[in-house]
């Protein structure tokens, strides 16, 4: 009778740790160009990267922050997390292991 609300209920650790982790991973994927530019600059600049890579660092931070502050992006990541959690509750297999096992069964 309360299954729907129970399924949507998030524990503190889910809201504050697990969903933000998904957000960070997805944002890094979506900001891959800025990540690559910053990484390249750091490799080329060595010890001086703090001074030399300010522009690349700012662009990366701006890109990531735009996703972190987007309520629709949070909802997208929350739904992805809830889907993974539901699948785990059904199968007992974490998402990473399910993904790893797929190619061997084909």
Automatic annotation (TrEMBL):
<dbReference type="GO" id="GO:0005739">
    <property type="term" value="C:mitochondrion"/>
</dbReference>
<comment type="similarity">
    <text>Belongs to the CMC family.</text>
</comment>
<keyword id="KW-0496">Mitochondrion</keyword>
<keyword id="KW-1015">Disulfide bond</keyword>
<dbReference type="Pfam" id="PF08583">
    <property type="entry name" value="Cmc1"/>
</dbReference>
<dbReference type="InterPro" id="IPR013892">
    <property type="entry name" value="Cyt_c_biogenesis_Cmc1-like"/>
</dbReference>
<protein>
    <recommendedName>
        <fullName>COX assembly mitochondrial protein</fullName>
    </recommendedName>
</protein>
């Amino acid at each position: 009778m309360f299954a729907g609300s129970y399924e949507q209920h998030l524990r503190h650790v889910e809201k504050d740790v697990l969903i933000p982790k998904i957000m960070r991973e997805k944002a890094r994927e979506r900001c891959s160009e800025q990540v690559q530019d910053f990484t390249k600059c750091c490799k080329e600049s060595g010890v001086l990267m703090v001074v030399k890579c300010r522009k690349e660092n700012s662009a990366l931070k701006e890109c990531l922050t735009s996703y972190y502050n987007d309520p629709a992006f949070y909802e997208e990541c929350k739904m992805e997390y809830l889907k993974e959690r539901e699948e785990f509750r059904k199968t007992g297999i974490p998402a990473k292991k399910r993904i790893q096992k797929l190619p061997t069964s084909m």
